[in-house]
Write a structure and sequence with these properties.
- Helix content is about 35%, strand content about 25%.
- By secondary structure, it is α/β, with parallel strands linked by helices.
Length: about 450
């Protein structure tokens, strides 16, 4: 089996040697996480189209198919595919897409399953362009289809998520069509610039000479936060994103190596933020949407808020309660605007704003119906989100780090609300973004159109 497994570069040379002898090289690509009869039929049908069958497998770090995926490592998946008689060669593709592998191997035929035929997907279109550019052709098999993701979902997803997905009325193509409508939006981001610094280490216990905890310093990592990560989240969805200047705030968290437990946090910030009123007033009319993520550190003054609320074509706003603003930063600052606005607010932050600690979350809408616009989504952490007329469960089954999940949810949902997407679809995609974010530490990565679509596609299998 291992004699069939090559690197992409080595396989490129092997494929060319066959082509020079007049033989047709056929290529298939996929994750192949849980092998089933549909995979076998697909690979047999592909081999029947040519002389040599090459299969490339997505490496582990690029498998964007939801929590705890892949189940099997790329090495094990490669060995399993190599054990199939009709497969001649296997390679692990350490890339998000198959495009570079196609350009390297230059197959005569690139074969996808029948479920991809007619699917609106940028990745499929890019793969077709790649195979055409090397003189090959994209073809689709027509045989029995099953889904590894569907099999895994039925086994691993909690019942509340499976019940919700049974009632979800949108298709994957619906999602792609709505996301494609975002590209021409012009977005202005107004928010504090934050650097999230993670100082890992080991707690040594109480100091021998003072009542303090000693901490042995280990690795240090820095991630984009605030305005920076919001712009990154937006970058693959819209063509124009502009951010206003602000002083940089460094939030440093000390984290125990064992268990990834956060111990304490420090703030390094200058609360004398620049006056950007003239800057914003001079350009605000050029944008379709102004996205305000107000972390309460002094950038959003009363004067600036008045300019934003009065002149913005569409306003998307989220406020945050944190240790640096001591509860003084609530959504009340913005909710006097009722039209062309989207409000995204955490449940606890909303309860603080309305001084209502104990009401059920659905009852909150009765409390705030005369205060907040109906285009409001309340995020509820591990319980998903709720909005007027519906709710969406949280999809994450593995939590590595919740920091930044709210920013990811807000960044993806805001432009969708701006173009009038249905709130139940918006809530779904927001919860997908949140689930992706909590699967890694800090803002080590950012949400992309591809990662969002792949996760959503997996849920809908």
């Amino acid at each position: 089996m291992r004699r069939k497994i090559y690197s992409i570069d080595a396989l490129s040379n092997v494929a060319q040697s066959y082509k020079c002898c007049g033989q047709n090289v056929v290529m298939c690509h996929g994750v192949f996480d849980v092998l089933h009869i549909g995979h076998l039929k697909h690979l047999e049908a592909a081999k029947a189209l040519g002389d040599v069958l090459v299969v490339t497998i997505t490496s582990d770090r690029f498998v964007n198919k939801g929590p705890d995926r892949p189940i099997f490592s790329s090495e094990h998946r490669a060995e399993l595919i190599a054990s199939i008689g009709c497969v001649d060669y296997v390679a692990i593709n350490d890339d998000e897409f198959a495009i570079n592998a196609i350009l390297s191997i230059k197959p005569n035929l690139y074969v996808k399953g029948t479920e991809y035929n007619g699917l609106v997907d940028d990745a499929i279109s890019d793969e077709e362009n790649a195979v055409n550019s090397v003189g090959g052709k994209l073809v689709f098999t027509d045989d029995i289809t099953y889904s590894s993701s569907n099999i895994i979902n039925n086994i691993t997803l909690p019942n509340n998520i499976k019940d919700y997905l049974k009632t979800f009325k949108y298709t994957y193509n619906d999602i792609i069509e709505w996301l494609n409508k975002l590209k021409d939006l012009r977005v202005l981001v107004i928010s504090e610039t934050i650097v999230d610094e993670y100082q890992y280490g080991e707690s040594l216990g109480k100091s021998g000479k003072a009542p303090i905890v000693a901490f042995k310093v280990g690795k240090n990592e820095k991630y984009s936060g605030g305005a920076s990560i919001i712009c990154l989240h937006l970058s693959t969805f819209v063509n124009t994103v502009t951010v206003v200047r602000s002083n940089v705030i460094i939030k440093k968290r000390y984290i125990e190596n064992t268990g990834n437990q956060k111990l304490f946090e420090t703030y390094d910030m200058d609360e004398n933020q620049p006056d950007i009123c003239e800057e914003v007033a001079s350009c605000i009319d050029d944008y379709d949407m102004v996205l305000v993520a107000d972390f309460g550190h002094g950038l959003l003054t009363n004067k600036l808020r008045d300019i934003i609320k009065k002149r913005t074509k569409f306003l998307a706003v989220a406020t945050q309660r944190n240790a640096g603003n001591m509860g003084h930063n609530t959504i009340r600052k913005y909710w006097d605007r009722k039209e062309n606005i989207y409000i995204c607010v955490d449940e606890d932050e909303l309860r603080l704003a309305v001084h209502e600690k104990y009401s059920r979350h659905h009852d909150l809408f009765d409390i705030i119906k005369n205060e907040l616009a109906p285009t409001t989504i309340i995020t509820r952490g591990p319980n998903g989100c709720v909005f007027s007329g519906g709710s969406v469960p949280a999809f994450a089954t593995t939590l590595i780090d919740a920091v930044g999940a709210g920013d990811a949810f807000f960044s993806i949902t805001a432009p969708l609300m701006c173009i009038g997407a249905p709130m139940d679809l918006v809530g779904f995609l927001g919860c997908v973004a949140g689930a992706i974010k909590v699967s890694y530490s800090g803002n080590k990565e950012h949400i992309t159109k591809n990662s969002l679509c792949r996760y959503a596609k997996t849920l809908l299998k």
